[in-house]
Write a structure and sequence with these properties.
With 188 residues, the protein is α+β, with helices and mostly antiparallel strands. It has helices at 2-19, 36-42, 135-141, 161-187, and strands at 45-55, 69-81, 87-93, 108-113, 120-121, 129-130.
Amino acid sequence: MKKVKVLLAIFLVATISFYVKPAYVSACSCAVPESVETELKNKTAIFSGKVIRFEDPRANSFIQSSADPISVVFEVKSSWKGVKESQVIVNTAKSSASCGYEFSVGNDYLVYAYGDKNQLETGMCERTDLLQQASGDLQILGVGKPPTIKVDLASSESPPFMMIGSGVGIGLFLAAIIFIRWYRSKQN
């Protein structure tokens, strides 16, 4: 009887644990953001633009992480610093759980980016925000300059590794079949 009660208690706890959801916890801890004036001095690029697409080099990978980098391609509308091109790529972590900024295709943003000019990055701890929610920043920044260099960033993403690997695997398989048939025909 005692064993039945213990087993029943274990079963009850196990069953309840499937219905209890843990609270959302972010591993990212952001300090109070710097002022717009300070960011204008410190950031590599500050611009507004519309997200036109994502490039996720690990999209077809078997193992994925919220920290995986993604590239976000923007159609630049105005620039205050560091961007003269009509399109630009900014990198971030895939998820806000890893301090990445979660952009949405078609939305306009005010982006504060750091890093090398050819490898811009941003995250949720920067002042980056939806353009419609950045009116205070825009007042301080003033009127931005439109892009002066027209570019078209066609997908710079390399073909997914799984597709390349599959193609190589199929090619090797077919080569092995051809070789075996050729070898058997030689022996006859």
